[in-house]
TrEMBL record:
<feature type="domain" description="Mur ligase N-terminal catalytic">
    <location>
        <begin position="22"/>
        <end position="98"/>
    </location>
</feature>
<dbReference type="InterPro" id="IPR035911">
    <property type="entry name" value="MurE/MurF_N"/>
</dbReference>
<feature type="domain" description="Mur ligase C-terminal">
    <location>
        <begin position="339"/>
        <end position="465"/>
    </location>
</feature>
<keyword id="KW-0067">ATP-binding</keyword>
<feature type="short sequence motif" description="Meso-diaminopimelate recognition motif">
    <location>
        <begin position="412"/>
        <end position="415"/>
    </location>
</feature>
<feature type="binding site">
    <location>
        <position position="181"/>
    </location>
    <ligand>
        <name>UDP-N-acetyl-alpha-D-muramoyl-L-alanyl-D-glutamate</name>
    </ligand>
</feature>
<keyword id="KW-0573">Peptidoglycan synthesis</keyword>
<feature type="binding site">
    <location>
        <begin position="112"/>
        <end position="118"/>
    </location>
    <ligand>
        <name>ATP</name>
    </ligand>
</feature>
<feature type="binding site">
    <location>
        <begin position="154"/>
        <end position="155"/>
    </location>
    <ligand>
        <name>UDP-N-acetyl-alpha-D-muramoyl-L-alanyl-D-glutamate</name>
    </ligand>
</feature>
<dbReference type="InterPro" id="IPR036615">
    <property type="entry name" value="Mur_ligase_C_dom_sf"/>
</dbReference>
<feature type="binding site">
    <location>
        <begin position="412"/>
        <end position="415"/>
    </location>
    <ligand>
        <name>meso-2,6-diaminopimelate</name>
    </ligand>
</feature>
<comment type="similarity">
    <text>Belongs to the MurCDEF family. MurE subfamily.</text>
</comment>
<feature type="domain" description="Mur ligase central">
    <location>
        <begin position="110"/>
        <end position="315"/>
    </location>
</feature>
<dbReference type="Pfam" id="PF02875">
    <property type="entry name" value="Mur_ligase_C"/>
</dbReference>
<keyword id="KW-0131">Cell cycle</keyword>
<protein>
    <recommendedName>
        <fullName>UDP-N-acetylmuramoyl-L-alanyl-D-glutamate--2,6-diaminopimelate ligase</fullName>
        <ecNumber>6.3.2.13</ecNumber>
    </recommendedName>
</protein>
<dbReference type="InterPro" id="IPR000713">
    <property type="entry name" value="Mur_ligase_N"/>
</dbReference>
Amino acid sequence: MLLRTLISDLDKITTSGNQDVEISALTADSRAVTEGMLFAAIRGTSLDGHRFIDEVISKGATAILAEIGPPTDLPDTVAWLHVPDSRSAIAKIAAAFYEEPAGNLKLAGVTGTNGKTTIAFLIHHIMQTEWHRAGLLSTVLVDDGEERSPAKHTTPGSIELHKILATFRDNACRGGVMEVSSHGIDQKRVHSVAFDAAIFTNLTQDHLDYHVTIERYMAAKASWFHDLAANKQGKKPTAVINTDDARGNDLAKSLDGKMPVIRYGFNVNCDFRAGNFQQKRDGMSFELSARGKTFLVRSPLIGRFNAYNLLAAIAGAAACGIKPRQSIAALADSPQVPGRMQNVGNAGGATVFVDYAHTPDALENACRTLRELDPRRLITVFGCGGDRDKAKRPLMAAAAAQNSDALILTSDNPRSEDPNAIIADMVKGLPPRCNYLTIPDRAEAIDAAMANSRSGDIVLIAGKGHETYQEFSDHTIDFDDRKKADLALRKRALEIAEMRSNPENRF
Ligand SMILES: CC(=O)N[C@H]1[C@@H](OP(=O)(O)OP(=O)(O)OC[C@H]2O[C@@H](n3ccc(=O)[nH]c3=O)[C@H](O)[C@@H]2O)O[C@H](CO)[C@@H](O)[C@@H]1O[C@H](C)C(=O)N[C@@H](C)C(=O)N[C@H](CCC(=O)O)C(=O)O
Ligand SMILES: Nc1ncnc2c1ncn2[C@@H]1O[C@H](COP(=O)(O)OP(=O)(O)OP(=O)(O)O)[C@@H](O)[C@H]1O
Ligand SMILES: N[C@H](CCC[C@H](N)C(=O)O)C(=O)O
Ligand SMILES: [Mg+2]
């Protein structure tokens, strides 16, 4: 596409060099530059992309987007685009390069500390049921309407993101759904994406390593809604907000009169309001009051928090034009979200669940939900990620201790940190007389939980959910909690069978 066309929507830009050149591709990574590309120099969290400009010019870049003016010795073959903010400029250019793909899709975005992936899967399921083809961009995987591939990020960078949205469109998806992380908002990865529905789930502690304070974390989330309310993308998006969450309620108030808002939750002021929640081991039901009607919602999911996720999915789909009745019919057999409250089996009476809870709130919810199933004991195995919010470690330990009978503290992804030091941070949050073991090796920790389990117990393995790896400072290993749990269950079943077949054990 011609450079001139790509930048035609950018205000606040100073250009030099020939703009009537074809741009073959866009990148913000010098390592990916080949001839004919536009390179965006971004001041990142650890490096400054401007330092790679000489390198990309020598590799044949045709245009440079930067927050500084051009050097005096700039070759005539290179165009220079001087902008105040490279991240938002490259997002706009990416939207233009891929011909505004979101404009051709009914698109829902989901933000909030917990529930994004679950809601994205639920909405994707509704959209697929209704429209046959729909796209999904999530922490777990990307489904472009034809193929599924593993995801690298919850919310990809703006260039990658528009490329994927273009694939949704080109594969004839009528719509799609994506997760919008706070990093994604802060780094303007979703700037210039036209949404029809913007969903807010909740805000609890996480990511303070990045946002520093909870207020700034919330401000990042809120800025996405206020940008959409300013309606620069040519759609009229609807905000879908959980107003049982205090910060969600404030956000909804701040948006009133600026954009349509659907409030959801259990409180009386909700537009999509749940009541009469009931739960069994094999699923839940609740009544939904919406648009003057009452519906019965049934789902194989468990946990009151999942009632919120179902409400968000129904309301989000409604904002994309799908009637609640149709969504509810689709959700009656919604698929298992990988690694979210996944029941991986039962041996000798102990049932094992794998869940992705990696925040204090999520861990509390996961443990409480399993407690409500009335196990003999709840044994929780979990760790905390290295190079991530350290302040959440003791809080996660406290939340798990309060809602479990026994804990096994282990490693999550230690990344560059010492696993024992992470566990020591967790131990600081435990109450006196807590029943716990520390076993840094996650495989051994899972085995120990199984070995200590008895008939009627529930073992919760939390924190890594769908992940298929474990990251250490100098290496990454294959590791899947579900596979490991399955092996441990089989081993335990054999041990129990052997014990029972031994005549000395019969009495
Ligand atoms: C802290 C953080 O979010 N970093 C992300 C960010 O990097 P950055 O912009 O800070 O980049 P940087 O490394 O400082 O480099 C600056 C610029 O120089 C460029 N560069 C760098 C090296 C080089 O040789 N040449 C070169 O051109 C880089 O491409 C970049 O454009 O932008 C990059 C491109 O989009 C991301 O890959 C990178 O994610 C890192 C790997 C990461 O771990 N991010 C996590 C924390 C994250 O984003 N998580 C959220 C979800 C959290 C949740 O689900 O709760 C997510 O959305 O996935
Ligand atoms: N609505 C909710 N409220 C609170 N906790 C939830 C909610 N939904 C899910 N959880 C808990 O949080 C965990 C993560 O859920 P999910 O993957 O859907 O969230 P996410 O927002 O996508 O997380 P991430 O930001 O890490 O990708 C679940 O495994 C569950 O324990
Ligand atoms: N998207 C989250 C996932 C955390 C998952 C947990 N297993 C960990 O590694 O801390 C993050 O990057 O903070
Ligand atoms: Mg997610």
